[in-house]
Every structure is written in C-alpha cells, then in structure tokens.
Amino acid sequence: DITHLPSTQYVNTKSTLDSEDKDHLLHRSFIDPPSLVERAEGVNLFLSDGRKIIDACAGAAVALIGHGNKEVHQAIVNQLQKVSYVHTQSYTTQPAEDLANLILQGSPHGLEKAFFVGSGSEAVESALKLARQYYFEKNEPERLHIISRRQGYHGNTMATMTISGNLGRKVPFEGFSYPHTSQVSPAFAYRYMQEDETEMEYTPRLLREIEDEFLCVGPHKVMAFIAEPVAGSGIGSATPPAGYLAGLRALCDKYGVLLIFDEIMCGVGRTGTFFAFEQEGNAVPDIMTIAKGLGGGYAPISGVLVHKRVVDVLRHGSKAFNHGHTYQAHPTSCAAALAVQKIILRDGLIARCAAMGKILESMLRTELRDCWSVGDIRGRGLFWTVEFVKDKKTKETFDPRIHFGARVQQAAFDEGVALYPCSGTVDGKRGDHVMLAPPFIITEEELSTVCKVLREAIESQQ
Ligand code: PLP
C-alpha cells in the first residue's frame, strides 16, 4: 500500500497483484498493466483490444502535431539513409545544425546556442552543469546553490529530482540527492494567494520570499534559480501572477544569479507562444530547457538554449562546454524534430493552439460549471488543468486513499479519452487534478467530446 505517500506518480487504482504478470518489461506499476497500443494516428490511439482513445494529453504534452505524420516519418527515413549516428566529439550533421538555426534564428531574446540531448531530465541536468561551469570560469566557485520551487518538476535524475517538489517521487530516495538546494513557494494563486490579497500584493510577497532565501543562503553562493514559467505536472498548468517572472529576472540580476526557465512541458507553443515566458513581459532567462513538443514524440530529443551572456563566458574562457552525451544531437532525433518544427511553422500550429485553447477554456468552464468537486480550472493555450476538491469553499483536498483524480482519469479512459495523470502535491499531501494538453491539430468537435466525457467521468464519482 503506497497511499501513505504524500504524492506519487504511481497511483494504483487496483489493490491486488496481477497474477498474470509475466512480462519481462518492467512497467511503472506491478498492479495496473498498461494498455497495449497498436497504432496511433492524428489525435487517436488504437489499442490492441480494438478501442479507440482520444489522446487529450498528447501522451505527456508531447505529441504536439498529433501521431502518425507521414512527413515526419519520411524525414526520419531520409536521415537514416544518410547517416544514423556519429559522435559529436568529431562530427556534426545537417539536421542538428538546421534545427538549432531554425529555433534560434536571429538569436531571439539573445538566446544564441542550442545543445540537444535526449530527455527533459538530461536537458535540466545539462543546464545545471552549464550554470556551474559558467561560475567556475567567472572565478566564483562558491556558487553551487540551486533554488527551486516547491511543487515544481524538473526531472527524475539525482540532481533534477532533488530540485523537484513532487514528494512522492522522492520518498525512496532520501539522502540520494544534490546537497546544495532549497525551495521556495510556488506561484500558485488558487492555493496560496490569500483571500484578502490582490494579485498586485501576491507577486511582491512571493518575490520577497525569494529575496529572503537569496540572503539567507548568501547571495554569493547562489548559482541558479529555476522555475517553470507555466507550471507543469506538479501543480497543473498554473500561470504566474502578473509581474512575477519579470520580478524574478530583476532579483537574479540584482544578486548575479543565473535564471533558468524549464519549459520542457510548457514550451514550444504549448501555451500559445513558442516560449511560454514570452507572454510574461521581458523576463528572458539565461538558460532554458525545452523538450516534449520539440520532437513531438517522433524521437527522443530535448534542448538547452543558452543566452549570449552565458555563452560568452565559455567562449572567451575555456572555449568548450565540459559536458556531453553519446546520443547528444542524435541525427535521427534532430531530423524528426526539424520536420516537426517546420510543420508547426508552415501550418501556423502555434496560432491554432492559442485559438483552440480559448475554445477549450470556454468549453471546460461551461461543461464543468455544475460539478461540485471541480475547485479550479486553470491554464493557457492548449494546457489546462482541472483540480478536484472535497469542498469548493475551503478547497479541502480529498483523502488521498480515495484517488479521486486517478478515478476520474480512469473513468474518462474507459469512455475513450486519455487525460494526463495527476501527481500534484498540496501542502504535503497528494492533490487531485487531471491535465488536458491535446495535440494542436485537435478539432472543436473532438474537444467537445473530450469535455463531455470529462464531465461524465467526474459525475460518475458522486
Ligand atoms: N521538466 C519538466 C518541466 C517536465 O515536465 C519534465 C517531464 O515531465 C521534465 C523536466 C523531465 O523530463 P523527462 O521525463 O523527459 O526526463
């Protein structure tokens, strides 16, 4: 029984072991075997038992242009026919160069270099090592401390798990962590903005707490502040209060701390602009990470994007980034991502995401208006979260043993709609939410089906 855990990604709705568990593949849960997918096309997954599922969360906010795109398939095949792998120590390939150039054409916001790896965790880990090397070369070796936010999520490797806030993922790994970290409050108005507080008061309160943390650690020891501009899986698509990201930028400038934005989930158009931070004034990070929508799921790929001021220190210092992976800038992944990004540009999919996002918001607000357990509906672009509470007024969470969110998710799945698993933490306990992050090609009719199924799934819990 894992229900005592404050929060976990492994939400088992069943309680007995599957006696038929003979698979050699280690699945996430020993109790709930995953569904076997035979084929996927557009927004739909086709399961081996004949069922069709609308992928209303694009996997994990990944399949941004939908599944089964033949142009991407062809780009992958073309690349494989040319070169499937070379080591980046000695070689580069055209798709890697072209992908970096496409994303950073004209150095948007001063972001000048891209470094491609395989997963989100690797990208964040690389960003942290880059930040460390930056200070090492600037002769500020005492800067080792990373400040992140409770309920943030930055990955599952040792360092990235340490700076993440999802308590359930950490339980077995106490002591297995990067030592120089601390956490401050998330920017999460629904839960933590006080009743008698305005947004104009909430933002400075959050920023004061961060400045206090800088001062408490010793500003000369702080290496980086890391945050998701629009929070992802830990809280569920929570947008920051007005002025928060700009305030973060100003604080980091004041104390010479690097600002890292983790846009692995919210970037690449998911919130309606290529970078999520673009909707928050002039808060440009020093280093940022992107991943899921970059390759759209056609191949594993993530990116670290680096501002010129960081690049310059290495360029004029050691003249190398002392970090690398065997599969860095993998040609097939870069070719897939390049094809995905070209499709997004050609078909105006980010503008479509913004427009469809408005439709989804209005459908959610209408459809779920009378659901007693829906405490909050929040998000931006095609990135929306529905949070469930036992009591709308007090915002009291359900007993974690009820698995309310997981049950809604399962009920929706049974009716043919896949939602993103809920794994949030509220005040140290597991909170309940489901996330919607469909492919940008989803139609209004499909969104309407998704919202109706979600309402029925919620109502079936009463
Ligand atoms: N950072 C954020 C914001 C994420 O949402 C995720 C994954 O969900 C990660 C990092 C880790 O990425 P990965 O699972 O590819 O290692």
UniProtKB/TrEMBL annotation:
Entry's Gene Ontology cellular component terms: cytosol
Recorded GO MF terms: pyridoxal phosphate binding; transaminase activity
Protein's UniProt keywords contain Transferase: yes
Entry keywords, A to Z: Pyridoxal phosphate, Transferase
Domain of life: Eukaryota
A Pfam family matched in the record: Aminotran_3
Cofactors named for this entry: pyridoxal 5'-phosphate
Similarity-based family: Belongs to the class-III pyridoxal-phosphate-dependent aminotransferase family.
Protein name: Pyridoxal phosphate-dependent transferase
Organism annotation: Penicillium daleae
